[in-house]
Amino acid sequence: ISTRAFATSSARAVINNVTVIGGGLMGSGIAQVAAQNGNHVTLLEVNPELLQKAQTNIATNLTRVAKKLYKDDPNAAQQFVEDAKKRIQGTTKAEESVGDADLVVEAIVENMEIKHKLFKTLDEAAPQKTLFASNTSSLSIGEIASVVKRKDKFGGLHFFNPVPVMKLLEVVRIPEQSEETYQAFMAWGKSIGKSCVTCKDTPGFIVNRLLVPYIAEAIRMLERGDASAKDIDTAMKLGAGYPMGPIELADYVGHDTTNSILQGWQKKFPGNPLFVPCESTKKLVQEKKLGVKSGEGYYKYNK
Ligand code: 3HC
């Protein structure tokens, strides 16, 4: 009996239809990885221009993946890209985006009010079966979930940039989350080729709780003039084996992102010296020098 019960519950939890909300850096990566692993994906953006931009980025990155997977077979590579692209449909209508979704992954701006508004709408529009997840880097999953009725079907699914390359998925639990939802999240993560780790709903979960203060400490070192950006980066690459140094990683992640993470944490946990935003980063954000994506941060890039 127990075997049959397990089979029934895991059959119910299978995820095929995934709706991704937001087609930015993270959302388009999530949509891509889901589609290239056989999911039918609906991608929601606020307007047709942003949708088009996301689809172009996805096509470019699918080609990079295909080239790697099918080095000696350009026809198979092209087929892989075409198949994955066909599995992604775009929309600008929130209510329609969740019609038959097994899972919704939200990857929009890090603003609690906007996330609440979105999830309220989706909770009304989505079928009962639909699981909800947020890809937030720094906000509380429990607080985001507070506006939905289906708290048992809610959790964090936190991906890393670049999503098609980074192998990790953090699966974040909240007390109301059912075991079935948790198991479905873990199984889905595995099915799209990620290694899953589990974490409680704490600031930054595992990776960002360690990575963001580390980046901020490196920037403070630069601000004090202890070493140059290039030498800090070289030191951590060659001395600690990191693929990128902390200053180039800060440029890569985007200063708007790290700055808003630190500002949010500082507000919530005043007095923690690890959570103090960096002055030079605040200045870069004001100047719209957000890092690689805007062509300049602590370093300059060719757009
Ligand atoms: N899509 C598909 N493939 C991509 C890609 C993308 N967006 N970006 C890079 N790749 C592939 C390249 O095609 C290349 O494949 P190949 O080895 O077969 O040629 C491979 O990845 C390596 O890329 P590059 O040769 O261009 O450059 P690197 O060897 O320097 O690797 C990197 C780039 C994978 C980004 C590596 O430097 C790295 O791992 N950096 C650290 C990234 C990191 O720490 N990310 C986490 C940030 S924190 C976060 O995301 C959390 C958020 O909440 C803030």
UniProtKB/TrEMBL annotation:
- Domain (3-hydroxyacyl-CoA dehydrogenase NAD binding) spans 17-202
The EC number(s) this enzyme carries: 1.1.1.35
The GO annotation for biological process reads: fatty acid beta-oxidation
List the InterPro entries: 3-OHacyl-CoA_DH, 3-OHacyl-CoA_DH_CS, 3-OHacyl-CoA_DH_NAD-bd, 3HC_DH_C, 6-PGluconate_DH-like_C_sf, 6PGD_dom2, Mito_3-hydroxyacyl-CoA_DH, NAD(P)-bd_dom_sf
Q: Where are the transmembrane segments?
A: none
Q: Name one GO molecular function term.
A: NAD+ binding
Q: Which GO terms describe its cellular component?
A: mitochondrial matrix
Site positions (Important for catalytic activity): 158
Q: Catalyzes what?
A: a (3S)-3-hydroxyacyl-CoA + NAD(+) = a 3-oxoacyl-CoA + NADH + H(+)
- Does the keyword section mention Iron? no
**What's in the keyword line of the UniProt record?**
Fatty acid metabolism, Lipid metabolism, Mitochondrion, NAD, Oxidoreductase
Superkingdom assignment: Eukaryota
Q: In which pathway does it act?
A: Lipid metabolism; fatty acid beta-oxidation
Does the UniProt entry include the keyword S-adenosyl-L-methionine?
no
Judged by the first EC level, this protein's enzyme class is: oxidoreductase
Per UniProt, residues of the 3-hydroxyacyl-CoA dehydrogenase C-terminal domain are: 204-301
Spell out the subcellular localization from the entry: Mitochondrion matrix
Give the signal peptide, or none.
Answer: none
| A Pfam match | 3HCDH_N
PANTHER family per the UniProt record, alphabetical = HYDROXYACYL-COENZYME A DEHYDROGENASE, MITOCHONDRIAL, PTHR43561
Which protein family is it in? Belongs to the 3-hydroxyacyl-CoA dehydrogenase family.
Name recorded for this polypeptide = 3-hydroxyacyl-CoA dehydrogenase
